[in-house]
Write a structure and sequence with these properties.
This protein has about 525 residues and is α/β, with parallel strands linked by helices. The protein contains 23 helices and 17 strands. Helix 20 runs antiparallel to helix 21.
């Protein structure tokens, strides 16, 4: 269980709601402003602010908030109005708690704190103007949360609402005012999709799916989402990830009269998500879209992070855009229609991120390999959430892959080359990544950049999940021409993620031809 953290502007009701919520949940309550005053032996946090100035006050505040979040027992924690302006504290709250922002208008805030003598931030000639300015400055920080609740409602109503939110499996992708939430919904709870789309206030909906998903799962979408929506049903398969498919989405949306308040709904696997996302990014120069992934690979990777695009003859994903969704709803019930091969393909991406950035995740995949391979619902739900959280931690640091996010491309230089060489009709994407991961790790060891034991460990867990781990040298050599189209290439060199130890990797520039020779040496003859 996670902590529940209440944030919001002064006078939003954090303390009163927090006390009532803690009583309802039977949890201890912490008010960080009260803790600051206690720490400094002053009557109020406002006195500490006035005496020490804002910079020192924020340092103390961050220490107090971080200590509260580090407590093992789940608490209800009320933050001060400016606590989340420290990014490290805000992101720690997102990692360790359910963070809820209580929203109130400036007028309500001022009315609630008018009688207080301990608001040094408002000790100015124009407190209303000062409050409006502060709220504007903090808007992006307040947006980075798991949920927002109307702070003007009665306390008991707010408490019930926050209690419901705290019971959900939520992961937040914090991108300021473009923040969105990934909800891992209880199996078969279609109302979560309805609620997510309803919050957007869409003027129209365009649902993009493929024939397989349409036949197997389309009726699992709530009627209120399906009714009145335009539908685009694509052919299934990576080989359909083309500009022609994007044009079908464009034309259907425009024929239906989509405007900038419209929403594109991606209901399918990674191919559908990529195509629908790119169409949304370019329609009217950008409309919103929602991801409802139906494959394991899309759940743990493609639906989170905003990468969209399509393939060209020269290689995979060479035309695209970063366009973040407005929400993601993951329901592992969709996986019931997948065969073992498709499930395993998704798990390859989980192994990849574990190797690159989350050692504990890889440990758990190894421990749960058997139930994961046979599709155990509980094991999959837990690993999906862990994988999403791991990816979020990388994406939030580097949204557009200018640095650290590129470590998630482990296995993809080789994998993409193999896929392109086979015309996207041989290995599934996850299978290609599995082979690519093992071959790249072995090649790095051959080049003196890594440890051969990493390749052996990766091969063992991938095989336990039912994935291929080898390719013939002749096929690797024939496919290598496609590596020259790798998006990380610069001249004759390419940036590759090198795993130094499980969970710790870094980008290294290597000679593309030399890498190709090392990969071929590690392939089968």
């Amino acid at each position: 269980m996670r902590h529940v953290v209440l944030s919001g502007f002064m006078g939003s009701g954090k303390s009163s709601v927090g006390r009532a919520l803690a009583a309802r949940l039977g949890r201890p309550f912490v008010d960080t402003d009260a803790e600051i005053a206690k720490h400094a032996a002053r009557p109020t946090a406002g006195d500490v602010f006035a005496e020490h100035g804002e910079p020192r006050f924020r340092e103390i505040e961050a220490q107090i908030a971080t200590a509260a979040l580090a407590r093992a027992e789940p608490h209800v924690i009320a933050f001060g109005g400016g606590t989340v302006t420290a990014r490290a504290v805000r992101w720690a709250a997102l990692d360790r708690a359910t963070l809820v922002t209580l929203d109130v208008p400036v007028e309500t805030s001022l009315a609630r704190v008018a009688s207080s003598e301990h608001r040094p931030n408002l000790a100015v000639r124009d407190p209303g103007g000062r409050a409006a300015h502060l709220l504007s400055e903090r808007r992006a920080a307040y947006a980075e949360c798991h949920a927002r609740v109307d702070g003007t409602a009665p306390v008991e109503e707010i408490v019930r609402h926050v209690e419901q939110i705290a019971g959900k499996a939520l992961e937040c992708v914090p991108l300021g005012e473009r923040t969105y939430v990934v909800e891992i919904a209880p199996a078969g709870h279609g109302e979560v999709v309805s609620e997510t789309i309803a919050r957007l206030g869409a003027s129209s909906r365009v649902i993009v799916t493929d024939k397989n998903v349409h036949n197997a799962r389309f009726l699992s979408l709530p009627a209120e989402v399906r009714d009145g929506a335009s539908e685009v049903v694509l052919e299934p398969g990576e080989h359909e990830k083309t500009i022609a498919a994007v044009e079908r989405i464009w034309d259907a949306a425009l024929t239906a009269g989509i405007d900038r308040r419209g929403v594109v709904v991606a209901f399918g696997g990674g191919v559908v998500g990529d195509l629908a996302g790119f169409a949304a990014a370019t329609l009217l120069r950008g409309v919103r879209f929602v991801q409802i992934p139906t494959t394991l690979l899309a759940m743990v990777d493609a639906s989170v992070g905003g990468k969209t695009g399509f393939d060209r003859a020269a290689g995979k994903n060479l035309v695209g855009a970063f366009h973040q969704p407005s929400g993601v709803v993951i329901d592992v019930a969709h996986l019931e229609t997948l065969d073992a091969r498709q499930r395993a393909a998704g798990l390859a991406e989980v192994v990849k991120i574990g190797l690159a950035d989350d050692a504990a995740l890889l440990d758990d995949v190894e421990r749960l390999a058997e139930p994961l391979a046979r599709g155990d619902h509980d094991a999959l739900a837990e690993i999906v959430r862990r994988a999403v959280a791991a990816k979020v931690r990388v994406v939030r640091d580097d949204e557009t892959e200018r640095g650290r996010r590129a470590i998630l491309n482990l296995g993809h230089t080789v994998g993409h080359a193999l896929e392109a060489h086979q015309g996207y009709r041989g290995l599934l994407h996850g299978e290609a990544v599995a082979v690519g991961t093992v071959l790249e790790l072995a090649a790095f060891a051959d080049m003196g950049l890594g440890d051969a034991a990493l390749a052996r460990r990766a091969a063992d867990v991938l095989r336990a999940l039912g994935l291929p781990t080898e390719a013939r040298a002749a096929e690797v050599e024939a496919a290598w021409t496609y590596a020259s189209s790798d998006k990380k290439r610069s001249g004759a060199r390419v940036a590759v993620p090198v795993v130094r130890e499980v969970g710790r990797s870094e980008m290294v520039h290597v000679d593309l031809a030399e890498l190709g020779r090392a990969v071929a040496r590690g392939a089968t003859r």
